[in-house]
Amino acid sequence: MLEGIVRESIGRKAAKALKRDGYLIANIYGKGLENIHAAFKVNEFIKEVRKKTTLAFDVKVGSQTLNVVVVDYQKDPVTSDLKHVDLKVAQKGVISKYMVPVKITGTAIGLKNKGVLIQSKRRLKVKCKAENLPNFFELDVSKLDVGDALLVRDVVVPEGVTILDADRIAVVGVEKAR
Length: 178
Hints:
The chain has 2 helices and 13 strands. By secondary structure, the protein is mainly β. It has helices at 12-20, 42-51, and strands at residues 2-6, 23-29, 36-41, 57-61, 64-75, 82-89, 95-105, 115-119, 123-129, 137-140, 149-151, 162-163, 170-176.
């Protein structure tokens, strides 16, 4: 489990000092909860996020243990180092909005017919309870030929989950190479 500290002062000077010491600045929030200003060791946070098997994972900040989902992060444009991360608490029984990744499986037929596979949506916005939250959406592209596409309405959605993106938007498609 990832352990972090609660930041007492939230000013720029204190944040710079924490970053110098190898900490990642984080904000943790949720419906009906007070925001928690936290900091995690950068390397420990990256290891935890890479080894997690579900979209939500546990963190311990101060005395409380929270089940959180990564909502947003900021990277340094030059060094690509993580600068800041936003975490949303996945509360049981509370309907909330999440971004769920899309995984592509198979090899499209259109790739052999001089086509290029283009994934236009890497994550889909969903509305559901934390216990119904899918880890990812899996799309099989093996039947796609040049000019074909899989739309949001073609995604198989588990019970209790609603996709908020428009159903006519293409998630992945095969286009003719130029």
